[in-house]
Amino acid sequence: TSRAKERGFEVEKIGLVRPRDVLYDRINRRVVQMIDDGLVDEVRSLVQYRDLAALRTVGYKEIFDHLNGEISLEKAVELIKRNSRRYSRNSSENRFRPRRYSISSGSKRSS
């Protein structure tokens, strides 16, 4: 174990928080955009490397399952959306502990 470095200041973490429905909508639209931009072809080109840890992540693992005939593309897309939402939720809940200040983004941008 290592000791925390003594500093003459305190670190404060600030997290931007979006309403869940807005965040989930953005995630869902981004997944569709990734598919439209060629995610399936990208994953197909990486099949020989599928056992690498970097390719056992959200998006890649679902498309590998699709390419293996285990699930439909539609099912793969739904799983990517679901798993991305879970990853986002878990990341935002754990990233700013133990001290957290949250600021609502209030953003009306669509992307």
Please explain how this structure is put together.
It is a single chain. This protein has 111 residues and is mainly α. Helix content is 48%, strand content 7%. The protein is built from four helices and two strands. It has a two-stranded parallel ribbon. Helix 3 (60-67) packs antiparallel against helix 4.
Number of helices: 4
Radius of gyration: 18 Å
Structural class: mainly alpha
C-alpha end-to-end distance: 42 Å
Mean of all residue-level pLDDT scores: 85
**Main sheet, how many strands, which sense, barrel?**
2 strands, parallel
What sort of overall outline do the alpha carbons produce when their principal axes are compared? flat
Helix content: 40-55%
Instruction: Give me the side-by-side strand order of the main sheet.
Output: 1-2
What proportion of the residues form beta strands (DSSP E)? 5-15%
How many β-strand stretches?
Answer: 2
Order of helices and strands: EHHHHE
Q: pLDDT below 50 for ≥5 consecutive residues: which ranges? A: none
Helix and strand topology:
Blueprint: E1 14-17, H1 20-36, H2 39-44, H3 60-67, H4 73-94, E2 101-104
Parallel strand pairs: 1-2
Helix pairs in contact: 1-4, 3-4
